[in-house]
Amino acid sequence: MKRMHVFYSGHVHGVGFRYATRDIAESLGLKGWVRNLVDGRVEIVAEGNEKDLKGFPDKILKGQLGRYVKDTELSWENPTGEFDSFEIAF
């Protein structure tokens, strides 16, 4: 298991970004959360197997959401196993 921490910037608020991200994560069997930040970015923490995690950002950027993204910051972290599902955090 691996853990990915991602920040997306651009026009990512008010376009259904979090909901679409959750759907993609669930389709890949990932666990974690996605949330809007006050600075206009979207933050994602996701855990799962390495293959699915590596495909996750590609699915976001190549789908409808990609047109809203200007920049991506991605880092890998040690997994904690704390998540039971993939949620939208508020």
Describe this structure in words.
This protein is of the alpha+beta class. It has one domain: Alpha-Beta Plaits (2-Layer Sandwich). 28% of the residues lie in helices and 38% in strands. It is built from two helices and five strands; from the N terminus they run βαββαββ. It has a five-stranded mixed sheet, with helices on one face. Helix 1 packs antiparallel against helix 2 (50-62). The longest helix has 13 residues, at 50-62. The protein is globular.
What's the layout of helices and strands?
Elements (H helix, E strand, L loop, with lengths): L1 E9 L6 H12 L2 E6 L5 E7 L1 H13 L6 E9 L8 E3 L2
Parallel strand pairs: 2-5
Antiparallel strand pairs: 1-3, 1-4, 2-3
Features:
90 residues; alpha+beta; 2 helices
Short description:
This protein has 90 residues and is α+β, with helices and mostly antiparallel strands.
Count the E strands. Answer: 5
The H-and-E topology, N to C, reads as: EHEEHEE
Distance between the termini: 26 Å
Helix tally? 2
- Structurally, how many domains make up the residues? 1
* CATH architecture descriptor text: 2-Layer Sandwich
Strand content: 35-45%
- Oligomeric state: single chain
Task: Extract low-pLDDT stretches.
Answer: none
Q: What is the helix content? A: 25-40%
CATH fold group: Alpha-Beta Plaits
Strand order of the largest sheet: 4-1-3-2-5
Arithmetic mean pLDDT = 96
Structural class from helices and strands? alpha+beta
Overall body shape: globular
Radius of gyration: 12 Å
Largest sheet, described in full? 5 strands, mixed
CATH C-level category: Alpha Beta
